[in-house]
Amino acid sequence: MKKLSVFIISFLLLKFSLILCSLAEDSCFWRIKHNEEDDGELRTDCGFILFTIPYPIEEGFYNTLIDFRIPTRKYEFFLVLLFATDEINRNPYILPNMSLIFSIISGMCFKTMNTIDFLYSPKNSFSKPPNYDCGTSSCDVALTGPSWTTSVKLTTYTTYPQIFFGPFHPILSDNVLFPYVCQVAHKDTCLPHAMVSLMLYFTWTWIGLVISDDDQGIQFLSDLRAEMQRKGICLAFVNVIPDSMQLYMAGAVIYDNQIMTSSAKVVVIYGEMNSTLEVSFRRWAYLGVQRIWVTTSQWDVITSKRDFSLDLFHGTVTFIHHHAKVPKFRNFVRTLNTSKYPVDISQMRTKWNFFNCSVSETNYSSMNHGSINTTLEWLSQHKFDMVLSEEGYNLYNAVYAVAHSYHEIIFQQVESQHIANHTGIFHDCHQMASLLKKRVFTNPVGELVDMNLRQKLCGNYDIYNIWNFPQGFGLKVKIGDYSHYFPQSQQLHISEDLEWATGATSVPTSTCSVTCTPGFRKFHQEHTPDCCFDCVWCPENEVSNETVDMDQCVSCPNDQYSNAEHTLCLQRHVSFLAYGDPLGMTLACMSVCFSALTALVLVAFVKYNDTPIVKANNRILSYILLISITFCFLCSLLFIGHPNIVTCILQQTTFGVFFTVAVSTVLAKTITVVLAFKLTTPGRRMRGMLLSGATNFVIPICVLVQVILCGIWLATSPPFIDTDTHSEQGQIIIMCHKGSVIAFHFVLGYLGSLALGSFTVAFLARNLPDKFNEAKFLTFSMLVFCSVWVTFLPVYHSTKGKVMVAVEVFSILASSAGLLGCIFAPKCYVILIRPYSNSLQKYMDKLRY
């Protein structure tokens, strides 16, 4: 039953993968891992010696040389060397009449370090590798890799030139410590920028990092962290794995908990494979830690045979230095001459390979029934295409670098007539090392190889995603590429076909916080990384609608406002205290009605101007007061309707001047009453003042002071048109701004002082005799006037928008109506309702009886 379930899963994954790979034929490869022991073989290096001989290679040379079982993961190196040397030996323009061959440093493809220590130990009589003639001091070239420690170890025992074909390591570029070592791989100068570009593309902002505890790892941490900070990406954790196995095992549980408890779904791994970092990586795979591993080409390994997931990015994303394809290599491997090369290679080449995923010419209906072995047999018969790894391609270039250097030395020696026929033995190691470091050539696939610029130029990267399936299957799909030399917006390219085939929703997120949707902005707590935040609503009239995770909301223009979701700015409606509004219409009607009523009162007073009640308190002052009250009612109309600069200026000046006229007239009337009734025995001077009409100068003097105040107001800070966007949601209220608030309050204060003076004088004269004495009415009118404007100030400053304008209009109408009603209503009652009382003879008859 278990075997059946495994078969069904394998069959389904094959179906799924074939459909996927049909969309990316040129960049999708199967791989099969056959042996349990392959994992251990990843920890071994190989060392080769390249040299020339002045005659063709014997038929069975390599059968004699390679008389051991080649580790599975090292087959590529042997195949590349066989192919490259064969290709060079067939080329008449490189090393003519000579053969380039390679030898193996004995045992170095197994336990590398122990082999080197044994071979070059002082106790061992064999202190040189095969084909290294001590007597003639020949200077052959060693090819070492993929671990840099092998090259360092070998350098301590030998002084012949080396080409390191593994990943670039800065320590080997030190010409003082390693003058005879050169590297063919590109330096990962732009790798941090390339990885961060991928993170930005998939919006991964919460990243874990695992590095080895060495100079290269610390430098990568510094470069990656700086690049991430520039792009707003945060490190969730940093695991620095010590080189010492003892130290690693002491803190292994801590490293495990850190990565297993972290919310980061993407983890960057950078460091050597042959280290405790690899142990940690395989330990996490065994513990079932499922993350998106972002790393380099050397971590292209199958990590699990049990767990299986169809998620798009379940597995490893690798950045591989871009290199051209070697089309002749495939044909060479398929047609390998077993009589010339070891039979072991020919029989076991399928133990390490990639299969092209094309299914266009393959009938896989036979897979509908069968066993696991049948599936494997079908895959082994599938369209075969062996693809060089990055290290294999570096080795290919290294062989050509050596061949071109040998060729140049021979050419120089022949030209200088040092030798007639070259024997293939070279003695000047310094010359050879110098030529290798400066070697520039074009390899057979057309790529320019400059050995001197490998550590200076940024390499281009191909980005692959590797899925690890059950039963040792692996699927490697190219998902994009990166080139530093393109414009920044075009440096990263992700395959559109892959996105169409899987859908963008399949890509998992790796963020510290939930994405802030439109209408919200990020709010950072103290002592937390920049990528960890809360989402809060945008303030009033601010929106966040274009992107997610906005740091600040965008304010709407003054003529717009935000909707309830704070995602869109809506157009505001222009609003003001218009005649069409119910409130504006009501106030306008009240103004017109009261002004008409005042006009009627004036008409009545003019008509009955000879009656005692009209003449009693200076009818000229009564006419002036009625006219001023009429204009006070009418000036309130300036506050209603669409404001303009003229109405804004007239609002305050007319209000101040006409009310000053009204209040100063009331003051003049009260002074007249006091002078008439308080001075029972007036002196000549007082009598003269009363008879000469000196009280009539009160009005122009008081008005002149108010006019001066208004003039100063208009000259310094006049009123202007203003807009209010805050009082009412979705409204732009157009209103008149007072300009100088201080001047406005000075005008009100001056009116208040006049009203208070009038109230005081009228209050003193309230009990004077005479039927037609209006002192009581004046007192009450000033009381109403002061009450209205004292109440106005707090109410006015507590309102906003057009309600504020309405409050001022209402105060004008109320205070004017108070003057009209309190002073003239009783008189109109007598004049119109009780005319018989408006007679001096009637009053005298009443006193007589």
Task: Tell me what the structure shows.
It comes from Mesocricetus auratus. It is found in: Cell membrane. It is a multi-pass membrane protein. Keywords: Cell membrane, G-protein coupled receptor, Glycoprotein, Membrane, Receptor, Signal, Transducer, Transmembrane, Transmembrane helix. The protein is an alpha/beta fold. The chain folds into four domains: 201 residues, Response regulator (Rossmann fold, 3-Layer(aba) Sandwich); 178 residues, Rossmann fold (3-Layer(aba) Sandwich), CATH 3.40.50.2300; 52 residues, no CATH class; 257 residues, Rhopdopsin 7-helix transmembrane proteins. 44% of the residues lie in helices and 15% in strands. Strands 1, 7, 8, 9, 10, 11, 12, 15, 16 and 17 form a ten-stranded mixed β-sheet that branches. It is rod-shaped. It starts with a helix and ends with a helix.
Condensed summary:
GO terms for molecular function: G protein-coupled receptor activity. The protein has 849 residues and is of the alpha/beta class. The protein contains 26 helices and 26 strands.
Entry keywords:
Rossmann fold, alpha/beta, 5-stranded mixed beta sheet, about 15% strand, 4 domains, about 850 residues, 26 strands
